[in-house]
Design a protein that fits this description.
The protein has three domains: 98 residues, Rossmann fold (3-Layer(aba) Sandwich), CATH 3.40.50; 66 residues, Dna Ligase, domain 1; 137 residues, D-amino Acid Aminotransferase, Chain A, domain 1 (2-Layer Sandwich). 35% of the residues lie in helices and 21% in strands. The protein contains eleven helices and 13 strands. The strands form three sheets. Strands 8, 9, 10, 11, 12 and 13 form a six-stranded antiparallel β-sheet that branches. It has a four-stranded antiparallel β-sheet with strand order 4-7-5-6, sandwiched between helices. The longest helix has 17 residues.
């Protein structure tokens, strides 16, 4: 394995403290991904440097001129406090030019806009929920062909921002109220989708031309109260006490037949290619009791902290965390 100079990019607020105590736990810290990635790359023999970015491209240019990296490990999730601007930073890396890890800007544009992604996937006959977009400032009027229940989301925000049990609506009045709330809360357009009852599945994919599909992962709800929807709300994803209270855990999906597994694998590869994704991504699906899988959304550059779903699925497949990061780096170098 060739040792490389790796420049890691993240938001300036996610730089880990300079002197972490040996053996200290940091898994619940907001900068855990940065610490895991940089410390692991260094342990593997790479020369890794982490810089923080907020709204100045000159910071990146200066680091490239001084450090002369062979690849940029992209951990940015926003630029200038806008979640969609990180794709423009990747475009800048292409213009420099310098190799980088993760998804290309075209794939990020297509997948981050949930409505645009759904249109592309529909063209390729990839199954997903029916939907409508409600623009900010426009009247909320449901088409008759879109029946209840429905789920209301931001069109572009990630990490389940604004998603709660109230996101599932059963009538027009609740729909209007929730769309209005999301317009005011997220200040984005809103996508309203058919709610698909079923199992919540995640599938990691690695690669550019040749794709590797990780084991199917499932978010399980073993102790949710009756009447509560089994969806990945903000609390489900980020509140440890809520997770413990309701028995919410993620792990290898069980009791899925080989035939359905193959259908899901094929579907994820088709989605990855249809949206022009590269590097690595996570596909979110719902699996009906009938065995029909539906693509809900695609997430380029997903969370890769050690122990989180993507890395855990890789480890379940026999890929250590060190090997996972090396694969991500190698894909970027050879692109």
């Amino acid at each position: 394995m060739k040792k490389l100079k790796v420049l890691c990019l993240t938001h300036e607020t996610l730089i880990p403290p300079a002197n972490l105590p040996a053996g200290g736990s940091f898994h619940n810290e907001p900068w855990r991904t940065e610490q895991y990635v940089v410390s692991t790359l260094r342990r593997m023999g790479h020369e890794a440097r982490l810089i923080g970015v907020r709204n100045e491209l000159s910071v990146i240019r200066q680091a490239i001129d001084e450090f002369h990296p062979e690849i940029v490990f992209n951990l940015l999730e926003e630029f200038h406090d806008q979640v969609l601007y990180d794709q423009n930073v990747v475009s800048y890396l292409e213009l420099v030019p310098i190799p980088y890890t993760g998804c290309n800007p075209r794939g990020m544009i297509l997948s981050r806009d949930k409505a645009l992604a759904r249109k592309v996937l529909s063209y390729h006959r990839i199954p997903g929920p029916d939907f409508i977009v409600f623009r900010r400032g426009r009247k909320v009027r449901r088409p008759r062909c879109l029946g209840f229940p429905l789920i209301v989301k931001s069109q572009i925000e990630e990490a389940s921002l604004g998603i709660s049990q109230a996101s599932i609506v059963e009538d027009d009045q609740a729909l209007i109220e929730r769309v209005t709330f999301m317009h005011e809360r997220c200040r984005t357009d809103v996508i309203v989708e058919e709610y698909i009852e079923g199992r919540e599945l995640y599938v990691g994919v690695l690669g550019d031309e040749r794709l590797s599909v990780l084991p199917i992962w499932e978010l399980s709800f073993s102790n949710m109260p009756d009447g509560q929807a089994r969806i990945a709300t903000r609390k489900v994803k980020w509140d440890p006490r809520y997770q413990a209270k309701h028995g919410i855990v993620s792990g290898p999906a069980k009791d899925i037949t080989p035939d359905i597994q193959q259908r899901i694998t094929t579907l994820c590869k088709r989605t990855y290619r249809a949206l022009g994704l590269s590097g690595y991504a996570r596909l979110d699906l719902r699996l009906k009791e009938t065995g029909e899988p539906f693509i809900i959304e695609a997430n380029p550059n997903p969370e890769i902290a050690y122990g989180e779903d993507f890395a855990a699925a890789a480890e379940h497949a026999g890929i250590s965390y060190e090997e996972l990061l090396q694969r991500i780096v190698s894909i970027g170098v050879h692109r």
